[in-house]
């Protein structure tokens, strides 16, 4: 072909825009001619979805602050970015994307290379919908910028009007889902003064081991969050005259007053477009690109619409996170423009906190939990070790509990979970680096980590935990049982 | 021999007591009979030397809080700990330690295994001594608990008496030495309200590259510390009637008012005992045990009296730190009792901060600086990358500058330096883990690190720096120059 390579990217958030810019960068470095068009169904690009709970909590001044790079800036940098342009169908034979633009006009875009970066969407449970299929008033997910604006409206409108609405103790919130969004929204709602109930199917933060979840749950309870675990929502018990939620009823029959309800029950990959065109998807419904990001000849996928390879188990997993989206997008963009790089896979590293007034807990994980290790057929030894975030004699010292899992026999690290006070959780990255390098528990116990009293104990909490587990595995090996 | 193995440990701080307890633990696990005697010349055991500046600053309630384990507790755990008992001579032929006890009585202790854990002592410059060889009043190092008590006395006595002493602007402090102790004591003195001058031979924190040191220096200057770099103390310019310091004169002729002077010019290994007995010492004067901690047949050494192997260069280095002392002590104790473990070497990881009022800088390093890499004959590429400690849109976001060095060609990580605001520095451990595993800059750029807005940017500052250096090394390889 004589003309430039035509790249079409569907989706203008982290994965899509990383792919777009890296493709341009690589093609320029190689002296190739390449043009990139990005179709985005919403009106937004390159924003921090993870920042939305903090915007709702009041920590972010303005919606614009959440936008990492504006549409105008993307265009200046050479990307033909088309907002409110929704891809409607892929024709992989004719190599054309059908789309509908902001004026509801239909069009076609031919491509040589196609990047699917359509992200994920919030799961909306049936009980949250009204008779016409719309959301019952007062209920909303927390996924994109428009959701954030909706939440600010919901919370701003009636705040302080509790009494007028027949809630003498103030307005009531119910958070459905005990994962990251659930915890973060519980923080936002408590900090905004709402009496808050959290309903979760199993334990809170079920990607942690139950003994670690219990430590998280204890802090939320102390902060006044009513925790309903091992339960689900059965129905919306009552609405007001305007059809807005007033009560939630759990499968256990518990009735929870609710003026606002956070739908935090997870996300699902938005892969319908490719699936309809016959592109491969995995168990979660996410695309399954190879390590170069390629899904089919000239078709690439990246970000929350994809599964990824778990670096420890080698299995496909669905871990929709901005960190992976950025790296996967960059990888796909680099390769489609002539590069040759690999996405190294995921460890399931994650971090968050709940902080409201004096009640604060930081939580982080990487690698496999006990349940995940068992499911992978790995014989794990594990131990929870208590410590402090700083030298214990400093007044700022906060407790930290570290759980480490290592494989019996090989002594290879399998996973780490941290629950602790301010300053505890970011050390999960040290564990992630050790896991990334397939190191043993002895490596972690022996490595040269930093120490000064305001930052750690002389055996850093993580390293103390590794040393104790190393000792335990050794004595278990001597006396199996 | 029929009786128990007799272990004598000289020195009852981190290395010595770690060795003592691990020897007991290992011998019990192996069913061996072993008795441990520890000789300690001072009256203190197992205290946090690193905590002393914070005690002086007022962050620690009581001297006892700095003691990790009391003498009584050590004895309950089976160690025959003898305080104020100074080893005076080693007889390696007869396998006897000569010592002098608290009552100035002399004695001998036979041993089968000997552990040298005599630590390091503060360097006292000649100009700091009076005619009789004692310290000039108002000048003191910051090394052990007694030094800490002396400092509390120095600062407590005259504080607020500035005017009476002819200092209408308050009492004046001079810190000599721009290393960790210098920075930490500058913090303590500024926080206690003294006008403080810091004099350092080269740049402040000279184990960092000059461009990173400059960032540290800028914060100290803003906090009101007068910085005199590339200078040394020539003499004590004046003393008062009681022989106490009033002025310091630098080699550049600058006269600094000084009511108290911190002697923070470094430490030297306390290895005279072993050196006199013919045991091997390195260039620094520190013992040079092997990776098992063994120095000679039945003679072991651990902690600040030792050199260690740098994991990147393979060279002997003198890095006296509590973290190594604990690990080396544990290693020696384990091996002398029949275990077989190795000390993995050091990376030169270190961390500290300067924090006074609104002025705060966290600093950390691991691996090689540019000068160290050059000295080791390694061709390093490097880059300083700016970022923020949290998502930039949160009000708590603090700046962080990360400098990464990697070897050209192999792309192996060589070193990382971090200078930033609150929450910046502890991520040095992630770099240390990567260096420990001999990973490349691409590994660091690709690994699955944690992200949530209160903890990091979506590309963590460290990872962003790695990615940029990876790109730079690649384009340098294409266009060498």
Structure in words:
- Two copies of one chain form a homodimer.
- Chain A has 481 residues and is α/β, with parallel strands linked by helices.
- Chain A folds into three domains: 5-120 and 268-336, FAD/NAD(P)-binding domain, CATH 3.50.50.60; 126-265, FAD/NAD(P)-binding domain (3-Layer(bba) Sandwich); 350-476, FAD/NAD(P)-binding domain (3-Layer(bba) Sandwich), CATH 3.50.50.
- Chain A is 26% helix and 27% strand.
- Chain A has twelve helices and 26 strands.
- Chain A has helices at residues 14-30, 52-57, 71-76, 145-158, 180-191, 210-222, 272-276, 322-336, 370-375, 428-436, 441-446, 461-478, and strands spanning 5-10, 34-39, 79-82, 86-91, 96-100, 106-110, 113-116, 120-122, 139-141, 172-176, 195-199, 226-228, 233-239, 245-250, 255-257, 260-263, 267-269, 294-296, 299-301, 308-309, 316-317, 350-356, 359-367, 380-388, 399-407, 413-420.
- In chain A, strands 3-2-1-7-19-18 form a six-stranded mixed β-sheet. Chain A has a five-stranded parallel β-sheet with strand order 9-16-10-11-12, covered by helices on one side. A five-stranded antiparallel β-sheet of chain A has the order 22-23-26-25-24, sandwiched between helices.
- In chain A, helix 1 (14-30) runs parallel beside helix 8.
- The longest helix of chain A has 18 residues, at 461-478.
- The radius of gyration of chain A is 24 Å and the shape is globular.
- The model of chain A has no long low-confidence stretch (mean pLDDT 95).
- The interface between A and B is large, with 71 and 71 residues.
């Amino acid at each position: 072909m004589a003309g430039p390579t035509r790249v079409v990217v569907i989706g203008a958030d982290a994965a899509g825009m990383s792919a777009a810019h890296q493709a341009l960068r690589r093609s320029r470095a190689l002296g190739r001619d390449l043009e990139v068009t990005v179709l985005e169904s919403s009106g937004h690009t390159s924003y921090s979805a993870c920042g939305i709970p903090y915007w709702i909590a009041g920590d972010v001044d303005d919606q614009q602050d959440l936008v990492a790079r504006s549409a105008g800036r993307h265009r200046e940098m050479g990307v033909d970015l088309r907002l409110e342009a929704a891809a409607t169908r892929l024709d992989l034979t004719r190599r054309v994307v059908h789309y509908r633009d902001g004026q509801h006009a239909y069009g076609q875009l031919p491509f040589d290379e196609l990047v699917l970066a359509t992200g994920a969407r919030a799961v909306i449970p049936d009980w949250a919908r009204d008779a016409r299929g719309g959301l019952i008033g007062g209920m909303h997910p927390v996924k994109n910028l428009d959701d954030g604006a909706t939440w600010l409206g919901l919370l701003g409108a009636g705040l302080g009007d509790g009494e007028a609405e027949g809630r003498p103790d103030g307005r009531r919130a119910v958070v459905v889902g005990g994962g990251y969004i659930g915890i973060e929204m519980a923080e936002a709602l408590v900090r905004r003064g709402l009496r808050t109930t959290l309903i979760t199917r199993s334990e809170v933060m079920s990607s942690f081991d139950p003994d670690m979840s219990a430590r998280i749950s204890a802090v939320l309870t102390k902060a006044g969050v009513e925790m309903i675990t091992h339960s689900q929502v059965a129905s919306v018990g009552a609405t007001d005259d305007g059809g807005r939620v007033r009560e939630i009823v759990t499968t256990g029959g518990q009735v929870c007053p609710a003026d606002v309800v956070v739908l935090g029950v997870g996300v699902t990959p938005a892969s319908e477009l490719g699936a309809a065109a016959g592109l491969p998807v995995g168990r979660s419904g996410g695309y399954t690109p190879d390590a170069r990001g390629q899904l089919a000849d000239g078709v690439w996928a990246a970000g929350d619409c994809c599964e990824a390879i778990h670096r420890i188990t080698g299995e496909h997993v669905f871990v929709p996170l901005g960190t992976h989206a950025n790296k996967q997008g960059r990888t796909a963009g680099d390769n489609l423009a002539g590069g040759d790089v690999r996405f190294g896979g995921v460890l399931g590293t994650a971090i968050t906190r709940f902080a409201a007034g004096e009640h604060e807990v930081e939580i982080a994980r990487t690698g496999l939990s006990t349940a995940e290790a068992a499911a992978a057929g790995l014989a794990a030894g594990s131990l929870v070790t208590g410590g402090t975030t700083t030298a214990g004699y400093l007044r700022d010292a906060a407790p930290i509990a570290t759980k480490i899992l290592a494989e019996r026999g090989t002594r290879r690290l399998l996973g780490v979970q941290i629950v602790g006070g301010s300053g505890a959780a970011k050390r999960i990255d040290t564990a992630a680096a050790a896991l990334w390098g397939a190191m043993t528990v002895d490596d972690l116990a022996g490595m040269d980590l930093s120490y000064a009293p305001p930052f750690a104990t002389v055996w850093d909490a993580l390293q103390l935990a590794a040393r104790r587990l190393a000792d335990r595995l050794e004595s278990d090996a001597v006396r199996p049982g």
